[in-house]
Each structure stands twice: as structure tokens, then as C-alpha cells.
Design a protein that fits this description.
Helix 1 packs across helix 6 and helix 2 packs across helix 6. Helix content is 45%, strand content 14%. It has a four-stranded parallel β-sheet, sandwiched between helices. Strand 1, helix 1 and strand 2 form a beta-alpha-beta unit. The chain is an alpha/beta fold. The longest helix is centred in the C-terminal third of the chain and has 24 residues. The termini are close together. The chain is globular.
Length: 152
């Protein structure tokens, strides 16, 4: 089983949304050979998803109300086959901490051939910004899954 880890800053909006959207897309394809997880670089353990993230996910029939944040750890990194970050800054930070995983760490944009594309942080913004982030994540993750399934 391939393990995919999504990483953002706080693990309360972008990475939990990415995890949930990817899981839903995988479920739709009846594909259960990829496990997804999320974590944050600068967070505390056990924080809930932001209310706005919960709301916009609910709008697309995904429930992340039970999400609980987790801090990036050596164990999560070691288990991951692919690590997707939201920004180049996240990617740089992770590859400095875990240089052994540099060849498995990509921004989402980079992985789909759009190296300058980043997922902006919607934290504390209005619902429209969160919706834009979730739509962008769904668009990118649809391509990510096609790439992963093609490699199978």
C-alpha cells in the first residue's frame, strides 16, 4: 500500500481538506491501495479543523468535523511514500529536516507539472477563499490520482 502524506502549516485547513478530498476521490474509484494522512509543520496536537474548512467540505459532502491536528514527525515521514506540501516554503522546510525524503517530497503543483502553483493559506479568511482552496485541491488531486493510478 502506498502512503501519501499532505503537509501544511497548521493542519487545520489545507492538509485536512486535501486528505479528505483525495480519500473521497479514491473511494469513488474503488481504489484502496493508497492510504492518506495529513500533518502540520507549526501546529499543536489535537486541534480541530477550522470551522470554515468543515463548512466548505460539508458543501461537497465530505465530513472533516472529526479531524484532529497532528505535528509532523519522523514516524509520519518515514512511513510516507509520497509527501505533498502546499507551498515551496513547506517543501524546503521539510527537506531541510528530512533530507533523506527530498526525492519523495513535492509541492502539489510540482507533482502535476505546474511547479509555480501553490495552495494559498485560507486560514481566517472568508468562506469564498476556503471554497477556492477546496476547488483547487480537488482539481489538482484529480490529476494526482490519475498519475498515481497510471504508475500502478
Amino acid at each position: 500500500m502506498k502512503k501519501v502524506l499532505f503537509v501544511c502549516s497548521g493542519n487545520t485547513c489545507r492538509s485536512p481538506m486535501a486528505k479528505a478530498i483525495m480519500q473521497k476521490l479514491l473511494d469513488t474509484e474503488n481504489y484502496d491501495d493508497i492510504a492518506v494522512e495529513s500533518a502540520g509543520l507549526f501546529t499543536s496536537e489535537g486541534l480541530p479543523a477550522s470551522e470554515a474548512a468543515i463548512t466548505v467540505m460539508k458543501d461537497i459532502d465530505i465530513d472533516i468535523s472529526g479531524h484532529s491536528s497532528q505535528v509532523i514527525s519522523e514516524a509520519l515521514i518515514a512511513e510516507a511514500d509520497l509527501i505533498f506540501t502546499m507551498t515551496k516554503g513547506h517543501q524546503r522546510y521539510l527537506t531541510e529536516l528530512f533530507p533523506e525524503k527530498a526525492c519523495q517530497t513535492f509541492t502539489l503543483g510540482e507533482f502535476i507539472g505546474q511547479p509555480y502553483r501553490e495552495i494559498s493559506d485560507p486560514y481566517s479568511m472568508d468562506l469564498d477563499v476556503y471554497r477556492k482552496s477546496s476547488q483547487e485541491l480537488k482539481e489538482i488531486l484529480t490529476i494526482v490520482i490519475k498519475i498515481l493510478l497510471k504508475d500502478k
